Amino acid sequence: MFTLSDQALNADNLKAQVINDRSGGFVSFEGWVRNHNHNKSVQQLDYQAHDKLATKVGNEILDEAREQFAINEAVCSHRVGLLKVGDMAIWVGVSADHREAAFAACQYILNQTKARVPIWKNEHYSDGETGWVEANL
């Protein structure tokens, strides 16, 4: 399931959606707000999304991962709204019978989400400026 959240992401709750007795491997990725980008000091981020379309495309990406990789479960959740340095912006989790599939699917989901899901990032810098940022894969 792909979700957007205006609240802090809870990795334990998200992980609980992915774990099952069939799986021998679990891989997760947490993306956090860092304090810099392109030699500028970042104070916070403002993520904005087209909710309905983002959810549709995000779930399509998860379906693609299920078709391409031998995985059992996959979840991706992305924050929207204002985030401070250190906040978790994205969480991806994948379980599979074997670790190789879990690793590959997790990377695929993360990269495709950054490239295709309509979520926009506006960085707020310590000098008072702001700037929209393209997805970096």
Automatic annotation (TrEMBL):
Q: Decide whether keyword Protease is in the record.
A: no
Q: What is the annotated quaternary arrangement, including any partners?
A: Heterotetramer of 2 MoaD subunits and 2 MoaE subunits. Also stable as homodimer. The enzyme changes between these two forms during catalysis.
Known EC number: 2.8.1.12
Give the metabolic or biological pathway. Cofactor biosynthesis; molybdopterin biosynthesis
Protein name, as recorded = Molybdopterin synthase catalytic subunit
Q: Which reaction does it catalyse?
A: 2 [molybdopterin-synthase sulfur-carrier protein]-C-terminal-Gly-aminoethanethioate + cyclic pyranopterin phosphate + H2O = molybdopterin + 2 [molybdopterin-synthase sulfur-carrier protein]-C-terminal Gly-Gly + 2 H(+)
Output the Pfam families linked to this UniProt entry: MoaE
By sequence similarity, the record places it as follows: Belongs to the MoaE family.
On whether Heme is a keyword of this UniProt record, the answer is: no
Q: Which UniProt keywords apply?
A: Molybdenum cofactor biosynthesis
CDD domains given in the database record: MoaE
Principal EC category: transferase
Q: Which SUPFAM superfamilies match?
A: Molybdopterin synthase subunit MoaE
